[in-house]
Write a structure and sequence with these properties.
The structure is a single chain. The protein is α/β, with parallel strands linked by helices. The chain has two domains: about 140 residues, HAD superfamily/HAD-like (Rossmann fold), CATH 3.40.50.1000; about 60 residues. It is built from nine helices and six strands; from the N terminus they run βαααααβαβαβαββα. It is globular, with a radius of gyration of 17 Å. It starts with a strand and ends with a helix.
């Protein structure tokens, strides 16, 4: 049986991409960056620093990059008003394994963003172990975040199962040596064939997920 669970946040626990996109677009408008100029820049599985670094190369921000990043984070938290529902099946899955195995959150998002999402979804108690952008030097597909999470939960990566919705997230988890469940959720569906198990949603694939975790 798997000895620890690790979850990506956006697109796995909750679909906050519309809020992220609204915050990004507001920053672009504030600094006169046409959305059409940066539409080709990939966003799935990437954090704001990575995305805005690519934006800056195409259409430089008139302020320091860290200022634009901070403004986007602040906007996201303000836009994330009131309670939001986790994606289908997530709470059931967490309830099943809460207290049985360590559970960690591994996100490329900033600490402020992670805390806001967990608070809004009322999932804070399930994730005593959290790894966010400020904890690592290299982002997905680098395995640093998952290796750090494995260290913090006290389990070898090979004994951990990771839930991811992006190719770069799956590659990060596999590079760390973990098993991976790919979840086809969020607005940017990808080919998750590199995962050990792929499900359309956690709710629809719950039986297969449990079988995979407890084999």
């Amino acid at each position: 049986m798997i000895q620890a669970l690790m979850f990506d946040m956006d697109g796995v626990l909750v679909d906050t991409e519309p809020v992220h996109e609204a915050a990004r677009q507001a920053v672009y408008r504030a600094y006169g960056i046409p959305a059409t100029d940066v539409r080709h820049i990939p966003v799935k599985g990437r954090n704001t620093v990575s995305i805005f670094t690519d934006v800056n190369a195409v259409h430089p921000f008139p302020v320091p990059l860290h200022t634009a990043v901070r403004e986007k984070h602040d906007l996201f938290v303000r836009l994330l008003e009131g309670p939001i529902d986790p994606l289908p099946g997530i709470r059931d899955l967490l309830e099943r394994y809460h207290g049985r195995v360590p559970i960690a959150l591994v996100s490329a998002s900033a600490q402020k963003t992670v805390e806001a999402v967990l608070r809004s979804t009322e999932l804070e108690t399930y994730f005593p172990v959290r790894v966010h952008a400020g904890d690592v030097r290299a982002f997905k597909p680098d395995p640093e975040g998952y290796l750090l999470a494995a260290e913090r939960v006290g389990r070898p990566p090979a004994a951990c199962a990771v839930f991811e919705d992006s190719v770069i997230g799956i590659r990060a988890a596999k590079a760390a040596g973990a098993r991976v469940v790919g979840v086809h959720t969020g607005p940017y569906p990808e080919d998750l064939g590199e995962a050990d198990l792929a499900v359309q949603t956690v709710a629809a694939g719950l039986v297969d997920i449990v079988r995979f975790l407890e084999a």
